[in-house]
Amino acid sequence: MTFLRLTGKKETDQGTEKYMPAAAEVLQYRKRTETEILIMDKIASFQVNHLNLMPGLYLSRTDTKGQCTASTFDLRVTAPNREPVMDTPAIHTIEHLGATFLRNSGRKEEVIYFGPMGCRTGFYLVVFGDQTAEDVYPLVMEMCDFILAFEGKIPGARPEECGNWSEQNLNMAKYYIRRYRQELAENKRLTYPE
């Protein structure tokens, strides 16, 4: 898909000059883009019925390029659209503590990414390999235990280490993770609902 830049460069007989498209060109671009958006594939996470989704640990997708496979997991902490979303300082603390634990765990070489969902109902964990939710379940439970036992200064919560270092809430982070861990232990939801 090609995107038109609103400011860019235009080739002329005299060389390259700055270029601002006419209003008609911008309007034509917008119309074309709206049509293109309508025919784009729906991403995997939008195909999950969030009205039936409960807290759990779900395999969101597996991607392979060449010899490299990565598995993305949905760590759903709250029930979407039925419970309040997590507050941002707690999410931030969970992100710092979770990432610190995962990148220092016995499986650190498998970890690609851990971070929050934009909807503030959970986190994504991306790992190397074709893995199942059952495969990462022990690691996620250990991460929860680490967060619940943590005391002291949040790793990476200094101005030179984080762009919003002071927005942390350890107590609320523990509240959400305590609830999440209990849900995982009692219900062990590892497959997306229909």
Q: Taking strands numbered 1, 2, ... along the chain, how are they ordered across the largest sheet? A: 3-4-6-5
Which structural class fits the helix and strand makeup? alpha+beta
Ranges where pLDDT stays below 50 over 5 or more residues in a row are 1-11
- The sequence of SSEs as H and E is EEHEEHEEHH
Write down the CATH topology of the largest domain. Answer: Gyrase A, domain 2
Determine the fraction of residues in helical runs and give it as a percent range: 25-40%
Total number of helical segments? Answer: 4
CATH superfamily (homologous) name of the largest domain:
S-ribosylhomocysteinase (LuxS)
Computed over alpha carbons, the radius of gyration is 22 Å
Taking all residues together, what is the mean pLDDT? 88
- Strand content of the residues, in percent? 15-25%
Gap between N and C termini: 33 Å
Query: How many discrete domains?
Result: 2
CATH architect. name of the largest domain = 2-Layer Sandwich
Specify the overall morphology.
Answer: globular
> In this structure, how is the largest beta sheet organized?
4 strands, antiparallel
Q: Which helices and strands appear, and what pairs or packs with what?
A:
Elements lengths: L7 E5 L2 E5 L3 H16 L17 E10 L2 E9 L11 H15 L8 E6 L5 E7 L4 H17 L20 H18 L7
Antiparallel strand pairs: 1-2, 3-4, 4-6, 5-6
Task: Give me some keywords for this one.
2 domains, alpha+beta, four-stranded antiparallel β-sheet, two-stranded antiparallel sheet, 6 strands, Gyrase A, domain 2, disordered N terminus, 4 helices, 194 residues
